[in-house]
Amino acid sequence: MNRNARRAAAILLLAAGAALPALAASPAVQEAQTLLSQGDYKGALDRLDRYLASSPQDAEARFSRGLVLVKLNRSDEAIKVFADLTRDYPQLPEPYNNLAVLYAQKGDYEKARDALEAALATHPAYATAHENLGDIYSALAGSAYNRALQLDQGNQAVRYKLSLINQLGNGPGGYAPAGTTGVVPGKPKTDILAPAPVAAAPAPAPAPVPAPAPVAAAPADTDTAAVTDALNAWAAAWASKDVDGYLASYDAAFKPDSGSRAQWEAQRRERVAKPSHISVRALSPQVSRIDAHHVRVNFIQDYASDAVNDKVKKTVEMSNSSGSWKIVRESIR
C-alpha cells in the first residue's frame, strides 16, 4: 500500500451508520446492534449469522453484518457484503457509501469514486456521499501532485497546489482520526479521507505564488457530439451483433473487472452472438470532462433480446488518445 493509501486508511472514520434509515430493524438485528455498540463484535456476528440463516434477504441484517465485519478488520468480506447489497437493493445509498470507504482504505480511489457516484445517483441529497466524493477527488489530486513533485522537485506551482490540498485536512473542521467519533444509531457518520502530505524536502527560494489552476471546462460541442456518436456506434454494433465492431469500441487500455482481457472478449463474443435478436439503446447520455483526453458518460442502457429485457443506469469513461473516442472503463450504477 503506498503512502497515500496508508494515510487515507489512517484518517478514515469507520463505516457509517448502525441502521438503514428507510428500514425497520427486526428484534434479532436490534440485539446484534446492541452487542456491536458494546464492543462484542463476535457475539453480534454470531447473532446476525443465525438470523440470516432463516432470513437471508433481510437488508438491515446484512448491512449490520457488514459493519461488524469492518470492526473485525475483515475488509474483504465486508466489501462482498456491501457489494451484494448494492446489487440486490440498488435504491439504498448507504451500502454504496460504505463500499467506497473500504475501497479507499485499500487505496483504490477510482472504485471508491464510482461507488459514491452510484450512491448519489440513487440519492442526490445524500450529504455524506457528497463530502466523501470531494475527499476522494482530493486524494486523487494529492497523489498526482505528489508524483509530479517527485519527478520535478523544483516545480513551485505543483508544490503550491499540493499545499492547498494538504490544508484541507488541517484547518477548522478538518479530518478527525479514526475512531474518535461515536456511532449514533440511525445517523450515518462522515467517512472521510485526506491525501498524504508531501515529505519535507529542501526547497529553493520561494517563487511568486501562482494562481490555482482553473477547473477543466466541459467538453466543447464538437467533442460532445463525437462522444455521443461513438457511444451510439457501440450500441448499434451490439444491436446488429457485429462482434468485431462492438469490441473495436473498447480502447486497448480497457481492463475488465475480473479475468483477463482475452477471457472477457471470448465471453462477450458468445453473449453478443448468441441471441437471435438484440436491441440496444443509450438513452439520455450526459457527457462530462475528466481531463483533456478523457470524458465520463452517464446514460440509461435499454437492452432487449429474445431472452432478456433490461434497463439499467450505466457509466462509461472514454478516451480519445487513439484518435477516436473509445471505452476505457464501464460500470453499472
List the main descriptive attributes of the protein structure presented here.
12 helices; Nuclear Transport Factor 2, Chain: A; Serine Threonine Protein Phosphatase 5, Tetratricopeptide repeat; single chain; four-stranded antiparallel sheet; 2 domains; 333 residues
What is this structure's SSE topology?
Blueprint: H1 3-11, H2 27-37, H3 41-54, H4 59-71, H5 75-88, H6 93-105, H7 109-122, H8 127-151, H9 156-167, H10 221-239, H11 243-247, H12 261-273, E1 278-291, E2 294-305, E3 309-319, E4 326-332
Antiparallel strand pairs: 1-2, 2-3, 3-4
CATH class of the largest domain: Mainly Alpha
Shape: globular
Ends apart, CA distance between termini = 27 Å
- What number of domains? 2
CATH superfamily label of the largest domain: Tetratricopeptide repeat domain
Helix content: 40-55%
Identify the strand order in the major beta sheet.
1-2-3-4
**Tally of strands:** 4
Helix-strand pattern: HHHHHHHHHHHHEEEE
| Assembly classification | single chain
Radius of gyration, whole Å: 22 Å
The helix tally amounts to 12
* CATH third-level topology of the largest domain: Serine Threonine Protein Phosphatase 5, Tetratricopeptide repeat
Mean pLDDT: 76
* Poorly predicted runs: 1-19, 169-220
- Decide which structural class fits the backbone: alpha+beta
